[in-house]
Design brief:
This protein has 348 residues and is α+β, with helices and mostly antiparallel strands. The protein has seven helices and 14 strands. Strands 1-2-3-7-6-5-4 form a seven-stranded antiparallel beta sheet. A seven-stranded antiparallel beta sheet has the order 8-9-10-14-13-12-11.
Length: 348
């Protein structure tokens, strides 16, 4: 018996069957129930995934021992791991600037985050062990004066450790052999600079006080800073460079001061001391250019160029040069030579 017709009849009957009509507004019996709407997130509240649990107590070791643990300030708590970065590993974190830190004696960085409950504000705290107070002060002084007039930051000075400054969303200070950098960010992506600056003024000085109280060390600038003349030195004007004094490559280390003369004229003074008179003599010649004019009676040898006046007395080289940044009104060439003469004459 051929069963094909019967099979086709049954198949067509099943295909023609329809579910009974639904009552207006009623859900189909086999349809999944609609999910209840999720509660609305608080405005500005970070997603749960962005809040990391605090680090364990034993993570706060070595340089990290200075970082506050747990609930550090009202509404703020430590969040996530404590990262320790040693020596050359720093290049993996700050490739472009790593060499500068290494040149100042960098040993270790301890880094962690602090978050404010109910917001996406996060402070990244960094404590750098620079190996010596000279290294910490030197790197701090470079951050203060790099590409700007340090005197312009006077209104933003803070009294943490040996001194520091507060920018729009960053606070930097040094103490002993340690350099501290606190950076505030808003992970929500909303770039409200005014609100960020207001939050920075609230939290960064308070966190800096905690850190400054925990970090040991002297707050007096290194003894080498006394090589710079005091007269006319602007606020934050004492800078220690590990190399590249006055922009000249391979000079070795030296102190550079930023100065202001009468009439708002600006200039810089570099003082570099070497191990022997021969080393100092060779260094002086690095600043000489064709057409330099001799300056008789200034130290043991001296000359002037269109941009600077330089001299050597014993093992010390002194250079009076143009201001930085270059937009500042410069001291006239005659004034540079006179200032050089006065400084060199006062040297022992």
């Amino acid at each position: 018996m051929n069963r094909t017709p019967l099979f086709l009849i049954l198949s067509l009957a099943a295909a023609c069957r329809r579910d009974p009509p639904q009552r207006p507004g009623a859900a189909a019996a086999h349809a999944p129930a609609a999910a209840a709407p999720a509660p609305a997130a608080r405005p500005g509240a970070p997603p749960a995934a962005s809040i990391d649990p605090p680090a364990a107590a034993d993570a706060f070791r070595e340089t990290g021992r200075f970082l506050p643990q747990g609930a550090t300030l009202p509404g703020w708590s430590q969040s996530g791991a404590v990262r320790l970065v040693n020596g050359q590993e720093l290049f993996q974190l700050i490739d472009g600037a790593g060499e500068k830190y290494i040149s100042y004696g960098f040993r270790q960085l301890a880094r962690t985050d602090y978050r404010k409950a109910g917001t996406e504000l996060v402070v990244t705290a960094e404590v750098y062990d620079m190996g010596s107070p000279l290294g910490a002060f030197g790197q701090y002084s470079m951050l203060l004066s790099d590409s700007r007039d340090p005197a312009s930051m006077r209104s933003r000075a803070v009294a943490h450790g040996g001194g520091g400054f507060l920018g729009t969303s960053q606070l930097v200070f040094w103490k002993g052999q340690y350099l501290v950098q606190l950076n505030l960010a808003d992970d929500s992506g909303e770039q409200d600079e005014s609100a960020l600056a207001s939050a920075a003024r609230e939290v960064l000085p308070a966190l800096a006080s905690r850190l400054a109280g925990a970090i040991p060390g002297d707050v007096t600038p290194p003894a080498g800073a006394r090589a710079l003349p005091v007269e006319g030195l602007v606020w934050g004007g004492a800078t220690y460079l590990s190399n590249g004094v006055l922009g000249l490559e391979q000079t070795g280390a030296g102190w550079v001061g930023h100065y202001e003369a009468a009439g708002n004229q600006r200039y810089r003074v570099a003082v570099m001391t070497r191990g022997s008179a021969d080393e100092a003599r060779a260094l002086l010649q690095r600043f000489r250019v064709p057409g330099a004019t001799a300056l008789p009676g200034v130290g043991e040898e001296a000359f002037s160029t269109p941009t600077l006046a330089a001299a050597r007395k014993g093992v010390t080289v002194v250079v009076v040069g143009a201001p930085a940044p270059e937009v500042l009104p410069p001291l006239a060439p005659e004034g540079r030579s006179e200032r050089l003469r006065a400084i060199v004459t006062a040297l022992p």
